[in-house]
Amino acid sequence: MGQRLTQIATRTGDDGTTGLGDNTRVPKHHLRVQSMGDVDELNSQIGVLLCEDLPPAVRALLVEIQHQLFNLGGELSIPGFELLKPEAVLHLDQALADHNAALPRLQEFILPAGSRPAALAHVCRTVARRAERSVVALQQQETLNDTPRQYLNRLSDLMFVLARVLNRLNGGDDVYWKSERLAAAQTPPPG
Questions:
Q1: Cα separation, 92 vs 6, whole angstroms
Q2: Looking at domain 27-102+110-176, does it have CATH number 3.40.190.10?
Q3: What pTM was estimated for this model as a whole?
């Protein structure tokens, strides 16, 4: 196992750089650091969601996702290294299929709202999309494995589905968008 942190405040970043897992230093605005930060924020947001009262299966899934996001962050911190395995994407695919099968088909757009756990899942979804964009931008400049990008893409989809699942706890439902333009287009003209 790699070296563990023994000191948190090292002051080595005071010059505007940060160390990667391979001991190279890059500016703190580097796309790799941005990607790592977005993945860390996503993991933290899932931690907030885990503070809610959740069904045991959803809780177990989210805890596993947190571990995989830590692997993803580790992979991003060490150029050329692989920690996040393709099987992690398959696990998300299966979770997506399982949870989506129990939901009614979407007829309209939904708002990122509803119950507190569902709203938090939507926040996780949007942070996952941002993390995905950061990884895609980094992949335009450096060689990365495909799995991190695929994992974040699938995870954002899963968080959308989990928000719908969580809105249905205790008899709730999605919050549907009421588009005035759509309503006007569907209303027959007078006369």
A1: 34
A2: no
A3: 0.84
